């Protein structure tokens, strides 16, 4: 296959040869997505193929990946001809068309009569990004896509196929394929359906012996009338049926003619034995008895005019059905050699639409593994082979070594010198670069980081390529700058190459390099006039999509000013920042509605935090603790810290934790006071507050650990079961090293719906377990359970992150399921700082405090303002609050230190487990900060049903166990997490949220009590109701389906059982008219009646029996459905009556935190109810709106996928525990007060500017905080 080299191939681009796919420096490549394309690679790697091979595999029933033909081989198909042969596809009827964004080809196999529909589509907005052969060149480049590469992305389920299966369109399979090229939106839906003519039709039409016998009898009974009849008639039944259908399809509705049964050709070729064919074609039969002779007619049903694009026939209609039957008849005519015209074959047209030539006479070598691996055909050009190699590289990330080997094998087989050089270079580069980075990526975080930057794993890229991808990412999505920097740092930390690492770390600094800033602004780095730079930045600010994006543009302009040392540009940047560039400049000067609460500005992907802060501000116990902190503050003495034991498992508190916790409360108090007194529409949370929420327990100034010494804990361990296991964890979990983790997962889609935030982590911590829990007691008893001192650990959202190269002083909340031994072990270093024995290198308390506070001030964005999960952050906040306060009391029996946080939020549950052969339950007590609800996998459900999946009885067949969970004690404020994480992405099914949640049905009860016995009955009713709904959902009342089912059960009709007397007793519908047909075959002009030679009474009787059996199928189905419907109503009524009596523990909905987007991207906001004013308020960062229609709010929440974190409050105590504080409206200032003062200076949105660290802060700047507090505040 040595091709001719053109001038371009002679001037080979060495960089294309020496770079693996996706690693060469090229122009930015857009990734255009469609809903179908988003399925690509979502759950497994799927190989693709070049269109030429795709068509060959289709016509030869040998798809490499798609299992359509395997399913067909195992299915029972009703067809006359076998289908497992090479398909010769011909165009069918008037059903193919083209629009600006779609193409439909309707085809039929000439041999087996199976129908193939090709529905091609593409995004008209990205039509210029489609793959096209004009982009082909040698050597190939990464940003050129000359040919499609089709990958299978799934098929419809059997239930959907059955639902769509009907007489007009007997669908067998629907398969989906997409082009995997990043910018291309081309996709194909392949639909295969059965022949429209059943076997008995074809047998009747081709029964030459029967036609010959009928012709013989006709000549005998009426010789003069049949004098011109020839023996050729025996082969002309398909020709005449084709003529009938042609005239019906092509004639005007007023010109449709009836067929007289007396027509001699019709009587001989068809006659009574073929009447069922015309009845199936929906011709109306008229029986006219004249002296014992049927003088009736068959009148066709007029099909509706074509209603598709460009006057084409719509699929699945009666007209399409007639066209399908006619083309099958034409196939019979063609195979009999009676057709004068050749059919129009579909394959050349299909290949032209796919943009590739047909490979004729493919050699046997196409079955060799290397060709299947790349999805190409032998004899194809090297450009096609390398294009397929690049596309497979993206699709098969775990098989790239095989791809390189396959490329080499094809090059050798082809004998192409240029292709061999390319393959050898690729193999050499792959082997050498695979060792360059030298680090594993078992947890997949490097893969995620590369994907986020638009690069394909593995990390075989040099530093320049990664930095260029980073710059292009910032230029396209400047709002994602913080995440992009985190990804760059992550990649750097996994390398052992010092220069490689240094280059990436320098580029990840928030102070941009000149090249990065110029790329973001779209400037030419060399000789940039300052006026041009300022004007370009202003234009970008005018088109900015949000404050985060604007901030990046302003930072980039600042960087250009600094690197070029331009004073004028610095002044221009300052002016833009103070006017157009200010994130909230547009709100300045607008009137403020002081009746609305104060909103919170997003300071960089902090919508998750803003939602929680607004909610916590309405919880009275939280507000009381924060605003009156001096009464509950934990003293920062070593003795007080050592004596403080957190939670039910009495976990030790580190000094660093206590310092961070008190700083958090200090910042929270400042924010709460600002929310009460601000006269602006929105205020800004401090960066220090965001840092304190998620500050990892690390401090600087330690030596860097080599990678080999770092813990090898994965970032995201596999999910735990939906409920805690009966036994304690066998071994503790280690802290996770920051060098190998600490970044969010790569988003499912880059176009996630977001209002002001971009990346989020939805429930990754909670996905590992349905709740954090601790086991206090496990015993085999049916009596009352009591906590013991052998408690496990306090429930917390996730493990803290240990940063390489720092000492562990600030410890965060422990990982869920971590044992107390783990806590003791990991806290040992910090204990040494405050114990009796102090090492020589230990630091005193004051030094630790100062270093922690410094860390709060200097944390990068990745520690405080990256998007996080609300459930996890709520756990962090609760932990910080607990660590900041002293206990209010101590339980004398257990030694548990109680305080207001535990009393307000923590719920006690009991997990019961019983073996099948035992009567006594094992049980364990858990203390949780929330309960979990699981949405239905296949449709909407109530919150009660979602909670039932957590609390109701479950049967574990493999373990021979049954288990359920009950609530032992409830807090006044109850949090419910709707667990939307699942293996295939976010569960988007709605959950119907009640305003009043009655929890009686989940409360613990003795197993011998009537309450528990009724609960067992309710479980049985619930399971039966679910089973009935499932069965009814699978059943299909569609008459066409029942007809298909009847046909499958009762078998095909014999020729003799389809006699002419089936409908002779039916009344006439259409008057007979004279026949004036234009036949494709011979025509007879006489209209004499052809009398049947015999009347088979046995035939009629047997057919009536068969019809009765058909009615039995329908009747049985209807009876079964009716029984199930009645039982379902009965069971639901019984369950409803049971549950209606259980309404003594009501909780009222107070707040709902919502999330829109995917598991790894999106935006948070919160709805909060003001019970006093009877109004719901919608807090979306800085925006606040009201809705007084509770029913409307509940409808919005209950019909969408957005509710994620529900907050209920005990109904009788709602005014005691929650309220919505009103603004403290400022009084009108006197003239003296209105005069300028030397007080604190505020910025445009009313926030207090930072005090100089050398100046003394105003007295009482932060109430309730000791001398260690910093001398400034941020509002």
UniProtKB/TrEMBL annotation:
Any single GO BP term: protein deubiquitination
EC number(s) reported in the record: 3.4.19.12
SUPFAM superfamilies the UniProt entry points to: Cysteine proteinases (SSF54001)
Reactions mediated catalytically: Thiol-dependent hydrolysis of ester, thioester, amide, peptide and isopeptide bonds formed by the C-terminal Gly of ubiquitin (a 76-residue protein attached to proteins as an intracellular targeting signal)
Entry's Gene Ontology molecular function annotations: cysteine-type deubiquitinase activity; proteasome binding
PROSITE patterns listed in its UniProt record: USP_1, USP_2, USP_3
Keyword Hydrolase in record: yes
Chain residue ranges for the region called Disordered: 698-734, 747-796, 813-841, 1053-1072, 1220-1275
Residue ranges occupied by any USP domain in the UniProt entry: 598-1211
Bias (Polar residues): 752-761, 817-836
EC top class, as a word: hydrolase
Keywords annotated in UniProt: Hydrolase, Protease, Thiol protease, Ubl conjugation pathway
Record field: compositional bias (Pro residues): 716-729
Basic and acidic residues compositional bias, start-end: 765-787
PANTHER family the record matches: UBIQUITIN CARBOXYL-TERMINAL HYDROLASE, UBIQUITIN CARBOXYL-TERMINAL HYDROLASE 2-RELATED
UniProt-recorded name of the protein: ubiquitinyl hydrolase 1
């Amino acid at each position: 296959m040595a091709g001719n080299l053109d001038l371009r191939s002679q001037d080979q681009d060495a960089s294309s040869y020496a770079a693996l796919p996706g690693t060469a420096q090229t122009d930015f490549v857009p990734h255009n997505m469609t809903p179908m394309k988003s399925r690509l690679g979502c759950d497994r790697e799927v190989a693709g193929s070049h269109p030429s091979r795709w068509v060959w595999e289709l016509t030869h029933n040998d798809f490499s990946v798609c299992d359509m033909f395997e399913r067909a081989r195992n299915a029972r198909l009703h067809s006359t001809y076998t289908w497992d042969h090479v398909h010769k596809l011909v165009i069918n009827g008037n059903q193919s068309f083209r629009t600006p964004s779609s193409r439909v080809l309707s085809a039929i196999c000439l041999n087996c009569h199976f129908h193939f529909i090709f529905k091609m589509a593409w995004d008209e907005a990205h039509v210029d990004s489609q793959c096209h052969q004009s982009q082909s060149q040698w050597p190939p480049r990464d940003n050129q896509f000359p040919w499609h590469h089709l990958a299978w992305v799934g098929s419809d389920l059997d239930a959907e196929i059955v639902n769509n299966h009907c007489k007009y369109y007997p669908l067998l399979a629907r398969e989906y394929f997409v082009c995997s090229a990043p910018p291309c939106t081309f996709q194909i839906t392949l639909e295969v359906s059965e022949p429209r003519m059943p076997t008995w039709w074809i047998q009747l039409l081709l029964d030459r012996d029967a036609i010959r016998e009928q012709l013989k009898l006709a000549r005998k009974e009426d010789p003069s009338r049949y004098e011109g009849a020839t023996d050729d008639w025996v082969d002309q039944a398909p020709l005449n049926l084709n003529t009938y259908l042609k005239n019906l399809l092509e004639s005007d509705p007023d010109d449709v003619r009836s067929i007289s049964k007396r027509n001699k050709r019709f009587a001989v070729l068809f006659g009574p034995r073929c009447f069922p064919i015309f009845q199936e074609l929906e011709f109306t039969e008229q029986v006219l008895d004249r002296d014992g002779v049927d003088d009736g007619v068959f009148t066709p049903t007029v099909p509706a005019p074509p209603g598709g694009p460009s006057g084409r026939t719509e699929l699945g209609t009666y007209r399409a059905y007639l066209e399908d039957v006619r083309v099958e008849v034409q196939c019979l005519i063609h195979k009999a050699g009676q057709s004068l015209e050749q059919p129009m074959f579909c394959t050349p047209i299909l290949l032209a639409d796919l943009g590739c030539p047909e490979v004729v006479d493919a050699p046997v070598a196409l079955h060799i593994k290397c060709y299947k691996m790349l999805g190409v055909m032998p004899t194809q050009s090297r450009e096609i082979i390398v294009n397929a190699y690049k596309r497979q590289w993206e699709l098969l990330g775990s098989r790239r070594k095989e791809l390189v080997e396959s490329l080499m094998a094809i090059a050798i087989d082809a004998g192409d010198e240029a292709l061999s050089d390319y393959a050898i270079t690729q193999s050499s580069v792959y082997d050498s670069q695979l060792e360059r980075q030298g680090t594993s990526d078992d947890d997949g975080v490097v893969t995620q980081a590369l994907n986020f930057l638009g690069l394909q794993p593995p990390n075989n890229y040099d530093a320049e390529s990664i930095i260029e991808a980073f710059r292009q990412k910032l230029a396209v999505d400047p709002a994602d700058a913080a995440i992009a920097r985190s990804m760059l740092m992550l990649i750097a930390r996994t390398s052992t190459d010092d220069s490689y690492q240094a280059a990436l770390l320098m580029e990840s600094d928030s102070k941009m390099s000149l090249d990065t800033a110029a790329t973001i602004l779209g400037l030419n780095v060399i000789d940039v006039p300052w006026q041009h730079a300022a004007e370009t930045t202003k234009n970008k600010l005018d088109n900015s999509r949000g404050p985060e994006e604007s901030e990046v543009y302003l930072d980039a302009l600042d960087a250009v000013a600094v690197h070029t040392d331009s004073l004028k540009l610095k002044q221009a940047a300052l002016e833009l920042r103070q006017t157009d560039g200010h994130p909230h400049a547009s709100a300045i000067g607008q009137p403020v509605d002081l009746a609305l609460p104060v909103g919170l500005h997003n300071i960089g992907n902090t919508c998750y935090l803003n939602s929680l802060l607004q909610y916590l501000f309405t919880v009275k116990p939280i507000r009381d603790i924060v605003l009156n902190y001096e009464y509950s503050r934990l003293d920062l003495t070593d003795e007080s810290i050592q004596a403080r034991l957190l939670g039910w498992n009495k976990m030790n508190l580190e000094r660093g934790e206590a310092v961070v916790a008190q700083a958090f409360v200090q910042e929270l108090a400042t924010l709460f006071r600002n929310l009460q007194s601000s006269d602006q529409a929105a205020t800004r949370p401090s960066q220090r507050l965001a840092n304190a929420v998620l500050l990892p327990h690390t401090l600087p100034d330690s030596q860097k650990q080599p990678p080999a010494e770092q813990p090898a804990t994965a970032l995201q361990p596999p999910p735990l079961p939906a409920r805690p296991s009966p036994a304690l964890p066998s071994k503790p979990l280690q802290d996770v090293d920051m060098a190998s983790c600490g970044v969010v997962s790569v988003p499912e889609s880059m176009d996630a719906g977001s209002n002001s935030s971009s990346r989020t982590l939805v429930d990754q911590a909670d996905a590992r377990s349905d709740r954090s829990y601790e086991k206090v007691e496990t015993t085999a008893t049916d009596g009352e359970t009591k906590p013991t001192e052998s408690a496990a650990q306090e429930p917390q959202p996730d493990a803290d992150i240990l940063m390489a190269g720092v000492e562990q002083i600030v410890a965060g909340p422990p990982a869920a399921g971590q044992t107390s031994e783990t806590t003791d072990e990991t806290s040992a270093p910090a204990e040494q700082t405050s114990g009796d024995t102090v090492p020589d290198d230990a630091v005193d308390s004051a030094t630790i405090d100062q270093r922690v506070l410094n860390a709060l001030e200097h944390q990068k964005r990745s520690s405080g303002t990256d998007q996080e999960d609300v459930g996890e952050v709520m756990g962090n906040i609760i932990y910080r609050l607990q660590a900041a306060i002293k206990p209010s009391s101590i339980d004398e029996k257990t030694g548990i230190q109680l305080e207001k946080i535990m009393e307000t939020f923590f719920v006690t549950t009991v997990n019961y487990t019983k073996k099948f052969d035992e009567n006594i339950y094992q049980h364990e007590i858990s203390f949780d900060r929330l309960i979990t609800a699981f949405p239905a996998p296949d449709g909407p459900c109530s919150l009660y049903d979602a909670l039932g999946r957590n609390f109701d009885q479950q049967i574990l067949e493999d373990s021979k166990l049954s288990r359920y969970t009950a609530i032992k004690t409830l807090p006044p404020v109850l949090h419910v997490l709707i667990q939307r994480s699942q293996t295939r992405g976010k569960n988007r099914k709605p959950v119907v949220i009640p305003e009043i949640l009655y929890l009686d049905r989940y409360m613990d009860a003795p197993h011998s009590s009537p309450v528990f016995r009724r609960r067992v009955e309710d479980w049985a009713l619930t399971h039966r109701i679910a089973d009935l709904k499932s069965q009814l959902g699978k059943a299909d009342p569609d008459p066409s389906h029942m007809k298909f089912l009847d046909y499958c059960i009762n078998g095909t009709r014999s020729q003799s059982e389809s006699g002419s007397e089936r409908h002779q007793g039916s009344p006439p519908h259409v008057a007979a008219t004279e026949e004036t047909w234009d036949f494709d075959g011979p025509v007879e002009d006489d209209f004499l009646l052809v009398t049947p030679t015999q009347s088979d009474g046995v035939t009629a009787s047997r057919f009536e029996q068969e019809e009765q059996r058909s009615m039995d199928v329908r009747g049985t189905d209807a009876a079964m459905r009716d029984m199930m419907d009645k039982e379902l109503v009965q069971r639901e009524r019984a369950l409803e009556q049971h549950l209606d009596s259980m309404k003594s523990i009501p909780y009222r909905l107070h707040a709902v935190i919502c999330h829109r987007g995917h598991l790894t991207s999106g935006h948070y906001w919160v709805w909060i109810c003001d019970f006093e004013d009877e109004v719901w308020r919608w807090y979306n960062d800085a925006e606040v709106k009201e809705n007084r229609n509770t029913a409307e709010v509940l409808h919005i929440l209950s019909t969408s996928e957005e509710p994620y974190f529900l907050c209920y409050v005990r109904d009788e105590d709602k005014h005691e525990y929650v309220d919505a504080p009103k603004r403290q409206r400022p009084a009108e200032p006197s003239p003296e007060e209105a005069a300028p003062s030397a007080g604190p200076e505020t910025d445009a949105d009313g926030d207090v500017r930072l005090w100089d660290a050398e100046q003394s802060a105003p007295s009482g700047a932060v109430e309730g905080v000791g001398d260690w507090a910093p001398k400034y505040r941020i509002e």
